[in-house]
Amino acid sequence: MAYKVVVPDVVHPKAMEILAAAGDALNVVSQGQMTRADLLAQVVDADALIIRSASKVDKEVLDAAQKLKLIARAGVGVDNVDIPEATRRGIIIMNTPDGNTVSTAEHTFGLMLSLARHVPEAHISMREGKWDRKSFGGVELRGKTLGIVGFGRIGRAIAKRAVAFEMTVLAYDPYVTPEQGKAAGAEMVTLEDLFSRADFITLHALLTDETRDLIRAESIAKMKPGVRIVNAARGALINEHDLADAIKSGRVAGAALDVYEQEPPQPDNPLIGLPGIIHTPHLAASTEDAQTVVAVEAAQLIVDALLKGVTNNVVNPAAKA
Question: Which domain holds residue 256?
């Protein structure tokens, strides 16, 4: 009897080729981007899911799933999955932590450069037929201090690029030793020290109860006046109202955001349309290269787990106990 694999999100065609190569062993259901109703209907007898960030695998979905054993996330973040509930039910969650590292690091650096040199504003000005060389003076990255919050794969990739730009790199991550940080080109410091010393701050922490609203009025007050903030991790790491207030007051010179607490942002989001902020619509991992790699890896994780009994990149090892 074939295992049923449901793919409710749009993934790269090469992932589907890997699943198809398993032949009759897998019954793959993919309808492009599924609606919530379709997901709830299809998951009832599913053995495995392959998801991106669009589909939310919450308690309602898990309640509907009567046979589910595996969830593979084509990407790093798994905050769209109810991990405690899945773990309680013995459902193994796997992710693909390596595939979008370079893509996200490059996008982050692009945002930081654009923020430093007012590239979007200057571009818009030129499209309006203006030749304004006085309004868009910027700052160099060379000689500035970059604070990286979260020093995993992406944080380290950013540090490598920052060193090439002759920046001083600080990093905060409670799970990284000073020796590991030094090897990656960064000085490991406390969060308070990072806030007080950094000219640019970029966020690459996981979203947890402890990191939610990490950037808020209290933490902004500890930062250098004129700091610039980049977020290509998770929107809820920033209290959007507090950041908007800090931009308006000039305490924060600018921000570049790829992620938002609610996506897409609602019309009343205080940051949308605010001068001094660069926006992109959650594009950090959206390169052809990255999407191919994470989709292929996710498909292979499911094939190996279902047909070979081998699980890799398990996010919740307690589910296997």
Answer: 101-279
| Structure tokens belonging to residue 236 | 């809820």
- From the list 73, 107, 234, 297, the catalytic residue is 234
Neighbours of 174 (CB within 10 A): 9
Same domain, 111 and 243: yes
**% of the chain with per-residue pLDDT over 70:** 100
Give pLDDT, residue 189. 98
Please confirm, yes or no, whether 282 is among the known catalytic residues: yes
Does the active-site annotation cover 263? yes
Q: How many CA atoms lie within 13 A of 260 on its CB side?
A: 20
List pLDDT tens digits, range 10-32. Answer: 999 999 999 999 999 999 999 88
Which candidate in 166, 192, 218, 263 is catalytic? 263
* Residues 246 and 307 grouped into a single domain: no
pLDDT at 76 over 90: no
Tell me how many domains the chain contains: 2
Which candidate in 89, 212, 216, 282 is catalytic?
Answer: 282
